[in-house]
TrEMBL record:
GO molecular function per UniProt: nucleic acid binding
A GO BP entry: DNA integration
InterPro entries: Integrase_cat-core, Retrovirus_Pol_polyprotein, RNaseH-like_sf, RNaseH_sf
Protein name listed in UniProt: Integrase catalytic domain-containing protein
Species per Swiss-Prot/TrEMBL record: Araneus ventricosus
Length: 99
């Protein structure tokens, strides 16, 4: 793949900006996921990583999974179709919605 390891100095995060940016994104995603159950954050990490890998990156325009495996992720479209199938009775506005 043409990659090689890069080492950075311990306790100097400014030398490793890409990793620090990913850590910031991961922390923000975890924060939103664990609002209801803060003590179970460790059980949510696989789902947050899955979501991160499936969604297209703003810099590259493609999902990390697609860059790694060379195929488009299908899980989100499957979930969207499943979710939308159950939303036929959804009404927008101020009236109560029954599902």
């Amino acid at each position: 793949m043409g990659s090689s390891p890069r080492f950075s100095t311990p306790l100097h995060p400014e030398w490793n900006g890409l990793v620090e940016r990913f850590n910031q994104t991961l922390k923000k995603m975890l924060h939103h996921v664990i609002l209801e159950e803060p003590r179970s954050w460790h059980t949510k990490i696989p789902f947050v990583l899955w979501a991160y890998r499936e969604v297209p990156n703003s810099t590259t325009g493609v999902a990390p999974l697609q860059l790694l495996y060379g195929r488009k992720p299908e899980a989100l479209s499957i979930l969207k179709n499943t979710w939308m199938a159950g939303q036929e009775g959804l009404q927008l506005g101020t009236t109560p919605v029954t599902l």
